[in-house]
Structure formats: structure tokens, C-alpha cells
Design a protein that fits this description.
alpha+beta, Alpha-Beta Plaits, 22% strand
């Protein structure tokens, strides 16, 4: 692939793909989460796999980072506080009550 195969602001050399397991997701808030992430500069692709409750995100690491994506998820979740996300490093996003 070349840089022309990606959205504006996304370079192939800086592309990062994360698979994040989300807990307590509803149909309403996942749409808001996807829209919030998808509208962020540097995001290449975002999708949600309902069967596994997994959010798939491709982004340019020079423009985005996992902490910023977590902030979007928290904001769209209605202000609930979460731990970390489950990705390749086994970090988990769990509600703190």
C-alpha cells in the first residue's frame, strides 16, 4: 500500500492498528464512539465487531494516540470512568463503579 491508499493525514510508515475490547457498550453509545473517533484527524479506519465487543482502529501515530482515543470513548460513554483497553498488550477497559 502507499500513502494514497489512506485518508488524509495517515502515512503508511506511521500506521498503527489496535483491537480494543469494550465493556458495557450499547447500540447508542457505540455509534457515538465510532463517530467521535472517525471524525478525528489521523484516523484511517474504525469499526466495531459486536460479537466480540471489539473496536478496530487504524490511525497515524504521529497525529493520534491511544490516550486520545480513550478520552473519546469516555466522553461518548456518558462520562463514566474506565480503566484501560484490551489490545495486543492485554490492557482492559472496564467500568469503575
Amino acid at each position: 500500500m502507499s500513502d494514497l491508499d489512506h485518508r488524509v493525514g495517515v502515512s503508511e510508515a506511521n500506521l498503527v492498528v489496535r483491537h480494543l475490547k469494550l465493556v458495557g457498550i450499547t447500540e447508542d453509545n457505540i455509534e457515538a464512539i465510532i463517530a467521535g473517533i472517525d471524525g478525528t484527524f489521523g484516523i484511517d479506519a474504525v469499526s466495531f465487531e459486536d460479537a466480540k465487543s471489539t473496536l478496530h482502529i487504524g490511525y497515524d501515530a504521529t497525529h493520534c494516540n491511544l490516550d486520545g482515543i480513550e478520552t473519546i470513548i469516555r466522553d461518548k460513554e456518558g462520562g463514566r470512568h474506565f480503566g484501560r483497553l484490551l489490545d495486543k498488550n492485554e490492557r482492559r477497559l472496564l467500568p469503575i463503579r
